[in-house]
Amino acid sequence: MDDPVEATGKLAKQISSFIREHYSDFLDSDQVKIYYDNGQIQVSKILASVFSVLLPNPIFRKVLPKDYKLFQVADLLCTFTLIELKIEKNLYSKSEEIFFGNRRDFKKNYLKHIKKKEWK
Question: What angle do CA 5, 10, 13 make, to 5 degrees?
Answer without folding.
Answer: 125
